[in-house]
Amino acid sequence: MSKVVVVGGGAAGMMAAVAAGRNGNEVLLIEKNEKLGKKLFITGKGRCNLTNDSDEQGLLANVVRNPKFLYSAFYGFNSAEVMDMVENAGCPLKTERGARVFPVSDRSSDVIKAFERLLDEAHVEVCLNTSVREIIVREGKAVGVRVLKKNANHTASKTMPIGGDFVIVCTGGFTYPLTGSTGDGYRFAQMTGHTVVKPRPSLVPFITKEKWPGNLAGLSLKNVSLIVKNGNKEISNGFGEMLFTHHGISGPLVLTASCYTDFEKMNDVHAFIDLKPALSEEQLDKRVLRDFSENENKNIINALSALLPQSLIPVVVSESGIDKDKKVHDITKAERAELIRNLKGLHLTVTGSAGPEEAIITSGGVSVKEIDPATMESKIVKGLFFAGEVLDVDALTGGFNLQIAWSTGYAAGSSTGE
Ligand SMILES: Cc1cc2nc3c(=O)[nH]c(=O)nc-3n(C[C@H](O)[C@H](O)[C@H](O)COP(=O)(O)OP(=O)(O)OC[C@H]3O[C@@H](n4cnc5c(N)ncnc54)[C@H](O)[C@@H]3O)c2cc1C
Fold it and tell me: Could you report the per-residue pLDDT of 90-140, keeping only the tens digit for each?
């Protein structure tokens, strides 16, 4: 019987441990937190959007970085197989808009409980409060890990080696570090001779130069379009929902746009919100003229309620260079044209991202060129595997990032053994 050491008890680590256990190995799952799945617990706003009910091509189409690398892993263990596994472990699932899959209970803790049952059935030994500090490699082969173990009352700790025939690193990225994902796996990869593609926060809110979004913090806009440009080059163009935050903008449209924004080169990035995407400029002009004719003697600020959320009106009026107290009948043609221009493309200058603390995922990580896509084994160190977000792969929202963790974790775990 081979001994498998899995480092990190998140989504990828739990799946790798279950697969390795089912493969007849003796498995030790090491997690530095006091419990398993701390990040999984907060996914999907506490409801856990654990996968997307689409076929392999649908999954691949939503991967932003290195989709080709994930081909074998997705075909080897797809979303239907994850759903079967979780349901058979006592957690019924439901599918919502956009094929997003959640537990029927709407509680992420039920997904974690299902995995605890699966780990138990696969006879996996779970070692909590234990941080892996180093991967031990001898003659080009992984032979174990060195850990720092806290004692029961957390007053002292000691380091010790733990031997293993296979080591699977599932330490996640470096975002939301309070959940335990602090980028340790990148250090392990570099120490064992691997290339790490510079990790950066992704699926992350934008910070803007303009301060006015802060006055609207919490306001969400539905059915709008968002175009993000770097200079004249369009980076992303989407329709849907977004929201204002204390320091800029967030919500689904912005998170998606962030996947295509290079925050290292931020000299000329601009966001344009089309508040009325269903209307052409001409149609919108007619609509505004109609509203104006019904409110001729009112101040402009009181004449746009049918068109915009109340709190957004002063912003659009001011960005259009119109005095908020000007009477509608005094608005010039040029001022109306400027108003239309802003309604069709309210401008914000993007100066950066909200950073690792608020990013849903890490883009970048262990270079996939050095990993076998069928097994997740390193091409540099035998017996060493990497799975989940630690790898240089990431996807859009919708359950795709967790599916990456399940599929790569499964590929790694089931490739260990005799
Ligand atoms: C707020 C939020 C919401 C999200 N919602 C969704 C969603 O609904 N759907 C979706 O698909 N994705 C979602 N994601 C992304 C998803 O959570 C991650 O992509 C996924 O958890 C990655 O799994 P992982 O196992 O690779 O890493 P993680 O889940 O980060 O797990 C890594 C584990 O390794 C442990 N660890 C790290 N270093 C060590 C060490 N040295 N020794 C021992 N243990 C260590 C950590 O404590 C952690 O438990 C969300 C992310 C966030 C932050």
Answer: 999 999 999 999 999 999 999 999 999 999 999 999 999 999 999 999 999
* Ligand 1 pocket check for 31: Cβ under 6 Å: yes
Distance 69 CA to ligand 1 centre (A): 20
Assign 264 a pLDDT band (cuts: 50, 70, 90): confident
Instruction: Determine the distance separating the centroid of ligand 1 and the alpha carbon of 46, expressed in angstroms.
Output: 13
Q: Give all domains of the chain, ordered by start, each with its CATH number.
A: 3-201+361-414 (3.50.50.60), 205-354 (1.10.8.50)
Q: What are 93's strand-pairing partners? A: 103
| CA of 171 relative to ligand 1 center, distance in Å | 8
- Between the CA of 181 and the centroid of ligand 1 the distance, in Å, is 6
What is the 295 CA–ligand 1 centroid distance (Å)?
Answer: 53
User: How do residues 311-353 score in pLDDT, each as one tens digit?
Assistant: 999 999 999 999 999 999 999 999 999 999 999 999 999 999 9
| b/e code 34-60 from CB counts within 10 Å (16+ = b) | eebbbbbbebbeebbbbbbbbebebbb
Fill in the DSSP letter of residue 299. Answer: B
Nearest atom, ligand 1, residue 49 CA: 8
Average pLDDT of span 188-199:
98
Give yes or no for residue 391 CB within 6 A of ligand 1. no
Q: How far apart are CA 367 and CA 314, in angstroms?
A: 48
Tens of pLDDT, residues 17-64 = 999 999 999 999 999 999 999 999 999 999 999 999 999 999 999 999
Ligand 1 near 401 CB (within 6 A): yes
Cα 176–393–84 angle (5° rounding)?
85
Q: Judge whether 389 and 8 are in contact, CB under 8 Å.
A: no
CA distances from 388 to 19, 99, 137, 181 (A): 14, 22, 21, 12
Residue 389 beta carbon below 6 angstroms from any ligand 1 atom: yes
Ligand 1: centre distance to CA 178 (Å) = 11
Q: Which residues contact 187 (CB under 8 A, 6 or more apart)?
A: none
Q: Which pTM value belongs to this model?
A: 0.95
Residue whose CA is at the smallest distance from ligand 1 atom 5: 43
Q: Which residue has the CA at smallest separation from atom 3 of ligand 1? A: 43
Query: Cβ atoms within 10 A of the Cβ of 131, count?
Result: 20
